[in-house]
Predict the structure.
Amino acid sequence: MDRIPTSTLKRLPQYLEVLKQFTRAGLREASATKISVFADLHQTLVRKDLSYTGINNVPQSGYNIRKLSRAIEDLLNWSDTSSSYLVGVGHLGSALLGYQEFSQRGLTIVGAFDNDPAKIGTTIHGVPVHSVLEITGEAASKGIQIGIITVPPESAQLVADLMVHSGIKAIWNFTPQKIHVPSEIIVEYVDMFASLAVLSRRLAERDAH
């Protein structure tokens, strides 16, 4: 399997959303130029990114939207649903448990874990909540490969260690804490504080003018 640049992988969902807009509008084909306008990206970059799908841009007509959409989903492995565990059922964790869009993108959260006795044994958005101490046995026996971390930052490393020990191969870390794991473990960070820092600074700069 060819390795696709991370920057391209992060743009592919954006193209998919644009294609969904076109489909809702009744379009069957779309050119790279049209996609680039709606994605607000240069068409050369769009063509390069979409070349990884193997779908050809037909002169005078463009891409077949249905085929291109399916190819992007296959490329992102969204057509193969993966089961995951989430650790940390606070406000953010609970919100993620109720986010229905995940299932449309190949991710199903089948179990949640926390250390709060009031939450253990309950069900949140249809997902059972277990003691965090149970994750090692649960994940290993069910072959769970993806772990989602939504605990306080100071607990992130401990949770990551438990996930690695349980056989989880990929971690989605929603905390600003950098975690240390073996090189074969895939880690993706969602740094909301970094994004907020940029937003806040840009707002301050605008108001200063």
The domain at 82-194 is CATH 3.40.50.720 (Rossmann fold). Residues 54 and 137 are 41 Å apart (CA to CA). The helical segments are 6-24, 32-39, 43-50, 65-75, 91-97, 135-142, 156-166, 192-208. The chain has a mean pLDDT of 92.
